[in-house]
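Subject: sequence -> structure tokens, single chain

Hey, anyone have a minute? Need the predicted structure for the following. Not urgent.
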Amino acid sequence: MKISKPHALWIMVLSAIYTLNTTGQSIIARLLGTINRPWVDKTLQLWAKRVLKLMKVKVKVINPDHVMPKKGQATIVMCNHSSLYDIPLSMRAFPHHSLRMLAKKELSKIPIVGKGMTASEFPFIDRKNRRQAIKDLKAVHELLASGIVLWIAPEGTRSKDGKLAPFKKGGFITAIEAKAMIIPIGIRGACNILPANTFQFNTHQTAEIHIGKPIDASAYTLENKNELADVVFKAMKALVEG
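Reply:
Had a minute. Here:
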């Protein structure tokens, strides 16, 4: 349902408040020395629920193979990216795991939000500096080893038309080096909630989160990372398009 500009502004304001509240709590908890991963996981799930409820989104998780991140196994979730709502929707895919988004460096500079994300173990990547980006991705290895499930949008940015765009290779280098299991996800309907680069919010939408079979990155080397990218692309394309 297309909504009015005043309604859209109200949603934007409340969404910002929810986000500032969540990141602010993380900063305070870190300063007090009371922050821990289970608390952050619970707080992020509450944030995702609130943001989606605000838009009256009906969420359906389709996981026919009952795929779940495994304890002790480095895991990377690779998801299509067509809307800002891909993030809260992805949080609902694995609500009982420590899912963190690989975020662009610019977000770390936003007051409260940046420090809150850092306190909550969100890694950042400098997309404008290829060498720095590679270093940022290598720093992710420790997070993966510690049990963080990393969310990556291999397209690098939001798709303007909702179709799967060509993949960047950085995430696949990290997956191979970390010997990670890649779980492909295809979200359908997020673009209808809020298309990329617009402020046209649409409420009462249905979003389907399709979870595919895991792909073992340890079976590939850096020399054939393109082959891995192709395998993941085909898997995600099938999940997105059906």
